[in-house]
């Protein structure tokens, strides 16, 4: 024992460092070390937990959890234990006694207190709990009350603003929330405690939770789009709203009907079914009389009447899509009789047409094919037959479908007919409304088509068929008895006609006599003398005609190319060229070769579009510009655009292109001419619109290719395994309107000559490969509509780039190197950018067109940049800003416009067009000072800017008269806060302004205070501007050039032409309105009259049309005055239309008559208080009265009203009756 004691004494003396390594007689060293190591780990763990706990305790209202406190105390106790103390106290002899027992204690610490500490060090583990002390709860409750009070004030302010709208009251749930929040804010915590209601912290916590719930419930009422009010359902107000909605609906209906009428004038078009259904429903709702609804008990309460109002609102909302600009209200359908196709006279084909009609009228032949070479006139013949069938009562429908090679697809290296695409084309022509699930189901479509065609006898004409197909697969039922259809197809291929089991009619070239007549018709009468061909021209003409081989297309085109060539030498030279020709295509080439080189290249470019494509003119011209075909250094983009239209007119006049379906905005190319263009251009690879699902094979990408067009296919990707095409001469690659998602990194590596790359409208494409940057000759890169695109490679190598369009993409960062593209003329940007544009754009001094529809990141909102950027863009012609919520900061502080910040000299010196939309933070567009920078501006379009208050902001300092010398068009729409266009003291002159269009400007009271001078204005359109009281502004200046005036939904307008407001006098000669031709007024709820006096009409001697509708307070068209005239003369008035003027009592004073010797149409609906139509009847030579000589129709409703009319002339009814049309219902 003595020896053990002495060993322990030694350990105590040497200290803790040495003690770890002393071998105890009963406890081997390894177990001692393990125990000490656990203690040290516990100490480190305690430090980590303490640090984490201190951080969490910084949160208000928190305290350490009791189990954490217990653990901390336990760790401190265990780490204080020493092995020698245990031993000295007899621990090893008493409760350890062996190394095994020490090991057990070590393991217990490891698995117990240490593992518990591991939980506390986890990131997600909370070491604190809420401090439920009374004092803390009091402070939290007061804080929650303050936050709720702020929210309540915000909502109260928004509610008051919305209540200012007429006929609006607070929503019940909003009022309930306001009352509840007021009650909770008024609570005093001291009272709760003293009265015993909240004597404990737990009760206070319940009150705090109630406050939080109320606060959160109010969040939705703070949203910008949240409506806090509802319509006031009192009966009087409901009646007013009902009539107003009816008026608005009627206006929309008339607009849609007019637009529909125009679109239906296109050959082969009929109204969409949903449009006709909407018009029918709208007509029914408009015809309802609210007084009848109330008196008959159907709407005895405001609640029931409001249901009708909601029905009106819904149908009005549905109709808005039909009034959008560019909306198509018609579909392809050639079945309706009375809608003939546009076609020229068909010479020498009467016998063919008669044979086809005979077969169709009979019962034996059900399938007919007209075959013949390209250009021989198959389509022309069938258009004539189509138009004749429209008059044939046997057939219910005549359907025309253009087929061509548009339906050929390649599957497993073999060409086959695309049944599904063909079915969709037929369904569209039939007007079938397909459900989404029908679009990809051949069997379902076949059933729908068959069911539709079996509803009666019909004729289906398929033009330009290239492959046979199974009629049953498509759904074409051949006539069986009285149901089904007869089939006619045109084709160049006799084998197709035979395979389709058709009776074949071969169409041969024209005989010489008919060919000559056609040639002379197209070449013009200048080659004739006394009705015969000039002798010195005749031999050349006959030989040239012989070369045309009787093919009508060739005859027409060649004749047009020789039009105006009168000298024999011209014809002799032409014949020398014709002598080398061997085919019809060669003849067509002659016309092509007679074009100027510039027109030739533009013509060939059209072949890059799919066969029979309807080509949008503006898009085609843009391509020409970017190809450099009509580019000329130094001329404006607008001038190049007009040059493009001039070239198109020449190509159409030469019959090398034609207007697509007679539409002025589109052109198309005959397939034979397209073949010729592609034959002339062997270095073109064109597979556009062929439903390809993958790129052409590698061997088709020849090294000599110049242009490749694969637009409008179904290509989904470019395989990573595909070797980069070696096309060093390729200049144009068109891959637009596909479904490409990936492009190999090296795909463009060998396209070093590429100038135009169009990848637009590939919505799945997310990134552009870096190899694009190697195409250093690239001038045009189009990526618009690539909605998934987020990354564009480094562009600094593309210094020749002139057009870059990234609009409607999702890019988040501007392409690196953008600022080095110093030759850019067109830049379109889209996406969500986190950077400003000032620096990247400052080097783009040649930029002409800038389009931006980005949504800047919120971080940029606070940045304020210099506005010098605009001074650098001195060649900018067109600026289009869309959807820029933070635009004040995005573009060198656009807010500076309103703040009159001076700009560098030369700023906007070339700008011609400005469009601003969805820029919700701009309050003023221009200051007067800014107008000095806009001397070339021609067009301003502003719409959907929620906070815009002024277009031109006034300034405190006086300045000289300011002029916008070239402004021609000003269009403002949907600006809810706009209060004035210009309301300053300085004179602003717009000497060339021709069009002023204002729509949905509810806060606008006056157009100008008289400081806006625009005498040259020709067209004024004002709609939905409820606060405007006068169409013509104070300090009125004469408008001698005004030709068209349209006014709708001006609820505060009392009179359109008021002599006092206009400052006109009957004692002075007329100086205003003498060019005005059309007046259209509608749905002006307070309008009493259009003209304040009869003598005013001296100013309106050019007036041709007056239309007034749905003005329910209107009593007079032309009011009586002290200077009344016996005869009111409108010598050029052709149309007078008055509809739904329920209080109208007179057109003019009872002592006056209207002298309208040019009147053609008189239309009067629902003007039942009108008792007199003061028409003057001219006298014939025999002194008998007659109707106005130009009169064509009188359309009225109801008929009973017409019978009750009083006439100044005793025979008026008899004279006018032959012209009357009595409508069964209001039209």
Automatic annotation (TrEMBL):
GO molecular function: ADP binding; ATP binding
Keywords: ATP-binding, Coiled coil, Leucine-rich repeat, Nucleotide-binding, Plant defense, Repeat
Stored Pfam families: LRR_8, LRR_RPS2, NB-ARC, WHD_DRP
InterPro entries: Apaf_helical (IPR042197), At4g27190-like_LRR (IPR057135), Leu-rich_rpt (IPR001611), Leu-rich_rpt_typical-subtyp (IPR003591), LRR_dom_sf (IPR032675), NB-ARC (IPR002182), P-loop_NTPase (IPR027417), Plant_NBS-LRR (IPR050905)
A Gene Ontology BP annotation from the UniProt entry: defense response
Location of the NB-ARC domain: 351-526
Coiled-coil residue windows: 32-59
PROSITE patterns in UniProt: LRR (PS51450)
Disease resistance protein winged helix domain boundaries: 608-677
Signal peptide extent: none
Record-annotated Disease resistance protein At4g27190-like leucine-rich repeats domain positions: 898-1007, 1071-1173
The organism's place on the tree of life at top rank: Eukaryota
Stated family: Belongs to the disease resistance NB-LRR family.
Name by which UniProt lists this protein: NB-ARC domain-containing protein
Organism: Rubroshorea leprosula
